[in-house]
Amino acid sequence: MSRRFLIAGNWKMNKTPSEGHELASGIGQFVKKDESVEVVVCPTYPALDRVSQAIEGTAVKLGAQNLYPKASGAYTGEISAEMLRAVFVKYVILGHSERREYFAESDDFINDKVKFSLENLLHPILCIGETLEQREAEQTLDVVKKQLLGGLEGVSKADLNNVVIAYEPVWAIGTGKTATPEMAQEVHAFIRKLLTEAYDDNASQKTRILYGGSMKPSNAADLLAQEDIDGGLIGGASLEVNSFCDLVDAARNAG
Ligand code: PEP
User: Fold this and answer.
1) Single pTM value for the model
2) I need a labelling partner for 233 at 20 to 30 A (CA). Which of 68, 217, 239, 244 fits?
């Protein structure tokens, strides 16, 4: 089954609204209207509206980096799905390792957000991945299984269609260390096998599994050539027009 490549930029806590507007405008000029690759940018909350304006009329889609799983109310500092949809957000990154680590987000809480996003017509990008300590203790597959099945608990087969998984080994995020294509493929194939067991082969084959962790133009082609790698969630290399567009190009060529 052919899955459409997805290249998503996670800007993290970078770019003011005007810087974001400039970056998104540059990306928008590069991405074709009938683009073979799906392209998503995920700015900070204050930049969402300006970035949304910058990509209007282009094929670039907007993502957010988080949400709170309640409709509205007394949740100081949080953002609702409705607010995100109001500025045309389509995707939302959930369970990123930085949120798991610095904000103590559990699989249960992430699962609430995944389900809430789906109920509110947003596509979750569910991030999972092991730390270096866990890899060295040979716990990678156990950790990935717990985070995947925990994050997807109660998600129906129909809804899985709207979910993207991102395998991000924590030791590779922002470190310059990338998993080798073989290491990444092994875990991606394992994730697909888990999806087949939890749902069925058809649902599993349709689900996109992104790789994240120091993906850059120099290593993207080898990673994207792997059978079960369907794109990338990009941090550092998403902050400049040229490097991000080179990654879009790598995905075009891999398709
Ligand atoms: C990320 O934060 O999702 C990520 C993959 O970052 P980087 O590309 O900088 O490793």
Assistant:
1) 0.97
2) 68
